[in-house]
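User: I'm designing a mutation panel for Glycerophosphoryl diester phosphodiesterase and want to avoid disrupting the core. Could you give me a predicted structure to guide residue selection? Please restate the sequence first so the numbering is unambiguous.

Assistant: Good idea. Sequence first, for numbering, then the predicted structure tokens:
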Amino acid sequence: MLIGHRGLAGLAPENTLASFRTAAAHGLAMVEFDVRLSRDGVPLVFHDDTLERTTSGTGPVAERNWAEIAGLDAGSWFAPAFAGECVPSLEQVLGLCLDLGLGINLEIKPDEGREAETAEAALALALRLWPESVSAPVISSFETICLDVARRVAPHWPRALLAEALPDDWREQATRLEASALHLDHRTLDADVVTGIMAAGLPARAYTVNDPARARILGHWGVAAVFADFPHSS
Ligand code: G3P
Ligand code: MG
């Protein structure tokens, strides 16, 4: 299975509405995206902690109010055809993914010191907007504080422990968080690591795999899904 990374970040500007539309247009069933907070506490979909790489703005996201961020161009850096594409709010992305029938992996990516606040705001909104009748969002984060919050406020939604490499204490962490999957950097995986995770009854998903040959090897080891910037069939 292929999960669109930041929407479908190889074909459209990452984490924009265009990126989610592109993922759906290529037949993907699920997308991953990153959620952080503006200064005034609005959950928005954006990867970096600063604005310059992917928008017309500068400086830390956490020092700008939502009204300022919403006015930035988040598409021109990628290609002129995407000029005027905006940084979307989480509310906009949830609404669009529901409209498009896309399953979601909501990665909580907090600024330092705002871990619980970010998780609480993002999950409160998602719990309000995401119908119970639709396949539940997968909640992931590199910050275990965020997954602790998810376990408390959305215990019925699956949680994935997210790390570059498998932590030594992954079994303890997964048990404590009642995690249902591990999301790991594919470069840190080998057959033994994947076998060990599967032996614990947990699926391993790997990011970010843009080489179809590598995806096949990972699948052969037992990796259940890969995050990719491109549809591998093209
Ligand atoms: O959630 C998988 C992957 O997105 C984690 O890395 O830096 O792309 O958010 P990053
Ligand atoms: Mg991510």
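For picking mutation sites, this is relevant: The chain has one domain: 2-48+89-228. The pocket of magnesium ion (ligand 2) is lined by residues 32, 34, 107 (CB under 6 Å).
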